Amino acid sequence: MLFTFKEKDVKTKEKVESISGENIDKCYQCGCCSSGCPAAGEMEYLPNQVMMYLQEGDIKPILGSRTIWICVSCYECASRCPQGIDISRIMEALRSIRLRENYDRLKIEEKVRLEDYPTIALVATMRKLTA
Ligand code: SF4
Ligand code: SF4
């Protein structure tokens, strides 16, 4: 039987570390971040799972997920992490990378119901238009 191994996306992992200033490999998967995250119920990947995928260099699923847009940058994860990792900065780095790919989570020029979206998604969209 043939096994295929995914190629690790080391470059993107390094880019996330460079933008966020966080060391992804310090995470030891205790789950404290996810247990306190107020937005966890709406995420496909919990914060500790985001860290796991990043450590594995398997970035595509995370970049394509709703999770990075659902994060409300409340810093609860950062305050709980025994390793001092600020996941909100990592989520912001992932959003930046996605926006630099010219991806539009929201088209602000279209009519949107503001109450349907987390504030951070609106801010990220507007930031892209003003850069
Ligand atoms: S900053 Fe984002 S990931 Fe961290 S606890 Fe808040 S919503 Fe969850
Ligand atoms: S709290 Fe910190 S060490 Fe624990 S899983 Fe989350 S990021 Fe990793």
Provide structural commentary:
The protein is an all-alpha fold and 131 residues long. It has a single domain, classed as Fumarate Reductase Iron-sulfur Protein, Chain B, domain 2, CATH 1.10.1060. Helices cover 50% and strands 0% of the residues. It contains eight helices and no strands. The protein has helices at residues 10-20, 32-36, 47-56, 60-63, 67-70, 76-80, 87-100, 119-130. Helix 1 (10-20) crosses helix 7. One iron/sulfur cluster binds next to helix 6 and helix 7.
Helix coverage percent = 40-55%
Largest sheet features: none
Radius of gyration: 15 Å
The CATH topology corresponds to Fumarate Reductase Iron-sulfur Protein, Chain B, domain 2
* Helical stretch tally: 8
Topology, please?
Blueprint: H1 10-20, H2 32-36, H3 47-56, H4 60-63, H5 67-70, H6 76-80, H7 87-100, H8 119-130
Helix pairs in contact: 1-7
Bound molecules: iron/sulfur cluster (SF4) (2 copies).
Structural features:
131 residues; mainly alpha; single chain; Fumarate Reductase Iron-sulfur Protein, Chain B, domain 2; binds iron/sulfur cluster
Would you summarize the structure shown here?
The chain is an all-alpha fold and 131 residues long.
